């Protein structure tokens, strides 16, 4: 339920916040729910000529969660869910990049949420956009691996364990 990316091509680039987004999708009582994070930072050092030398770090402000029903925004910040008072950020730090062919990479790294760090691997696409790049991908996670939804909320018949984090990060030099 969280995460972000930014990638830098040869020289440091910034994120175009108007074109970048981090969303997540989960099922509540079998109905898909889409939400987003309004605040995140990302630094990416993308090497077009040697993609395996590329690195990325993304930090998501969990307090910026925006669910379709605003009354739930405060609920998911509580200890049973994100425990945002103690763990205000979700962080992805890459440990490897692998070229999958034209415009595609496989990112490997550590995803830390709520004090738990797990190695994740996922594909992403890279396209030139203006003078920068557009990085897009989807990272599937299991919320219970990060203790998101404790106590009675461990019951996956109410809120499914599967969560898809969808990101789009557009850089500008």
UniProtKB/TrEMBL annotation:
SMART domains tied to this protein: YceI (SM00867)
InterPro entries: Lipid/polyisoprenoid-bd_YceI, TTHA0802/YceI-like_sf
The Lipid/polyisoprenoid-binding YceI-like domain, residue ranges: 12-172
Matches recorded under Pfam families: YceI (PF04264)
Protein name: YceI family protein
Source organism per UniProt: Undibacterium fentianense
Lineage of producing organism: Bacteria, Pseudomonadati, Pseudomonadota, Betaproteobacteria, Burkholderiales
